[in-house]
From TrEMBL:
It comes from Plantibacter cousiniae (nom. nud.). Residues 1-29, 254-286 are annotated as: Disordered. This is ClpX C4-type zinc finger. Residues 14-29 have a biased composition (Basic and acidic residues).
């Protein structure tokens, strides 16, 4: 809509470009000296919605879930600006007589294609996620994981995002409690364990144990070895009940107390019983 018909928006912060803060400061200085701001287009009409999914529906008649719309919009900082970027219009900020009037039929067709590409899970030739084993993902990360034959294994967007946050470790285990390895990153996803000792609780990642016939992955994450993965969760939650689901915290707190009492009665018992048993777990079969 026409410049000035609405409220001024905050400058969006792109993920890969923080210079917008400086640009916004420049505009404020220009305003203070009576000069026109460079981004005068940056207003939102009073009848517009900030909801990305609603914008997509209005423009393309395509229904997407809030999560799908959020993920796509996040790439550009603000859902309305995301629509501008999708459309690829050469002059998207010009005033129009109707909402989104600058978008042609071809623009909208292109927008639909990008939306589908951004919001639909895809598979990759490398196979399923080398960490959790899921077959399809909305976006993939190149990872340091390798299959048994040395071929590269990718990471799904969920595992990859956590891996990046952890500093992109490349080793399965580091021996450094302040520098997590790949298995400890996986424990955050599998069992919610954000802070655990430098041990893997017996966990093996999908890339480590996958047979060639199952390399394509599974429909659901963390289902490649249900019995063994459940056992890992159990060990983590018994070690730190706070990571257990809310409805099971009391259960694991009681089990932990009982285990500590039993250890207290042992004069020469192990403080970490069954560590060797974890390493002997049969991950070859489900």
């Amino acid at each position: 809509m026409k410049v000035g018909a609405g409220r001024r928006l905050p400058m969006p912060q792109w993920r890969d470009d923080r210079s917008s803060k400086a640009d916004d400061l420049d505009d404020r200085n220009r305003e203070a000296h009576g000069l026109p701001v460079i981004d005068a287009w940056r207003r939102e009409h009073d009848t517009c919605t900030p909801d990305a999914a609603d914008i997509i529906m209005k423009l393309t008649k395509r229904a997407v879930t809030p999560d799908e719309a959020r993920r796509t919009a996040e790439r550009f900082g603000h859902p309305l600006i995301a629509v501008h970027r999708w459309a690829g219009s050469p002059a998207p900020m010009e005033a129009a007589s109707k909402p989104f009037g600058w978008l042609s039929a071809d623009d909208l067709d292109a927008t639909v294609q990008v939306i589908w590409g951004d919001t639909r899970p895809t598979v990759v030739e490398e196979g399923g996620c080398g960490m959790c084993g899921v077959r399809a993902s909305i976006g993939w990360w190149e990872s340091p994981l390798r299959w048994a034959d040395g071929a590269k294994a990718a990471m799904c967007s969920t595992c990859g995002d956590v891996w990046v946050t952890a500093g992109r470790p490349v080793d399965l285990m580091t021996g450094d409690p302040l520098r997590p390895g790949l298995r400890r990153v996986a424990l955050r996803l599998l069992a919610g364990a954000t802070s655990v000792p430098e041990t893997d609780f017996g966990l093996r990642l999908f890339a480590e144990i996958a047979n060639p016939s199952e390399r394509a992955g599974y429909a659901t994450a963390w289902t490649y070895r249900p019995t063994q993965l459940d056992a890992v969760r159990d060990r983590v939650w018994l070690y730190a009940p706070r990571y257990a689901p809310a409805d099971r915290v009391d259960e694991y707190t009681a089990r932990q107390a009982a285990a500590e009492e039993e250890r207290a009665r042992e004069i020469h018992g192990q403080t970490e019983p069954s560590r060797a048993e974890w390493d002997r777990s049969d991950w070859a079969t489900g």
